């Protein structure tokens, strides 16, 4: 699978909005996390509707690199090893999730805006078969690929960063493969994500 067309390199000043929160992205034991709270309470939904809150982690507080791999909707392989050295945006979704449908055009806009700057976009479809994902992509104009993760392998790799059923969630991984930022719930504005991408891409290794 080729992801070359999804990469770019960023030049420009990093913004000063990086925030290191005490729970860092480790949701277990982080009582203030809105998605974790909803999950514990139970809602009867098939997804947990996050509030779009953003957590950014300064480099010295980031955890180890996340290693993941899976087969996409076209039968190709997506691997963190193949994307090593790039900033990676990972979005967890499935077709029947209402906020996932709402944010799909916004994610695509962010992808298009970032296409020349060395960033890879990867979806992780947590529920659907490949045909359903392909239909979704056509309906919403999504042009980047998604891992079809019905076996939960990719979700397991991100288990400490994404709570159960926390769909949609968007992560930004730095060039070392570490989680640098997380958006809980629906992304409502592409500029939020593109700003984070620019900041992370501009970091010195």
UniProtKB/TrEMBL annotation:
<dbReference type="GO" id="GO:0030313">
    <property type="term" value="C:cell envelope"/>
</dbReference>
<dbReference type="InterPro" id="IPR000866">
    <property type="entry name" value="AhpC/TSA"/>
</dbReference>
<protein>
    <submittedName>
        <fullName>Unannotated protein</fullName>
    </submittedName>
</protein>
<dbReference type="Pfam" id="PF00578">
    <property type="entry name" value="AhpC-TSA"/>
</dbReference>
<dbReference type="InterPro" id="IPR013766">
    <property type="entry name" value="Thioredoxin_domain"/>
</dbReference>
<dbReference type="GO" id="GO:0016209">
    <property type="term" value="F:antioxidant activity"/>
</dbReference>
<dbReference type="InterPro" id="IPR017937">
    <property type="entry name" value="Thioredoxin_CS"/>
</dbReference>
<feature type="domain" description="Thioredoxin">
    <location>
        <begin position="52"/>
        <end position="202"/>
    </location>
</feature>
<keyword id="KW-1015">Disulfide bond</keyword>
<dbReference type="GO" id="GO:0017004">
    <property type="term" value="P:cytochrome complex assembly"/>
</dbReference>
<keyword id="KW-0676">Redox-active center</keyword>
<dbReference type="InterPro" id="IPR036249">
    <property type="entry name" value="Thioredoxin-like_sf"/>
</dbReference>
<keyword id="KW-0201">Cytochrome c-type biogenesis</keyword>
<dbReference type="InterPro" id="IPR050553">
    <property type="entry name" value="Thioredoxin_ResA/DsbE_sf"/>
</dbReference>
<dbReference type="GO" id="GO:0016491">
    <property type="term" value="F:oxidoreductase activity"/>
</dbReference>
């Amino acid at each position: 699978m080729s992801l070359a067309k999804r990469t770019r390199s960023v030049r420009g000043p990093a913004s000063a909005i990086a925030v290191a929160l005490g729970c860092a992205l480790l949701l277990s034991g982080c009582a203030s996390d809105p998605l974790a709270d909803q999950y514990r309470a139970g809602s009867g939904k098939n997804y947990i509707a996050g509030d779009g809150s953003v957590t950014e982690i300064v480099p010295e507080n980031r955890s180890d690199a996340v290693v993941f791999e899976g087969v996409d909707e076209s039968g190709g392989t997506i691997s963190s090893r193949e994307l090593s050295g790039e900033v990676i945006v990972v979005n967890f979704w499935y077709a029947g999730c209402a906020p996932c449908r709402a944010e799909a055009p916004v994610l695509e806009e962010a992808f298009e805006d970032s296409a020349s700057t060395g960033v890879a976009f990867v979806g992780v479809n947590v529920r659907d078969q490949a045909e359903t994902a392909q239909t979704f992509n056509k309906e919403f104009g999504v042009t980047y690929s998604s891992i079809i993760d019905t076996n939960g392998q990719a979700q397991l790799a991100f288990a400490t960063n994404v709570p159960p059923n926390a769909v949609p969630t968007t992560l930004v991984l730095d060039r070392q493969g570490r989680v640098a930022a997380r958006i809980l719930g629906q992304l409502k504005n592409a500029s939020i994500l593109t700003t984070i991408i620019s900041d992370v891409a501009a970091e010195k290794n």
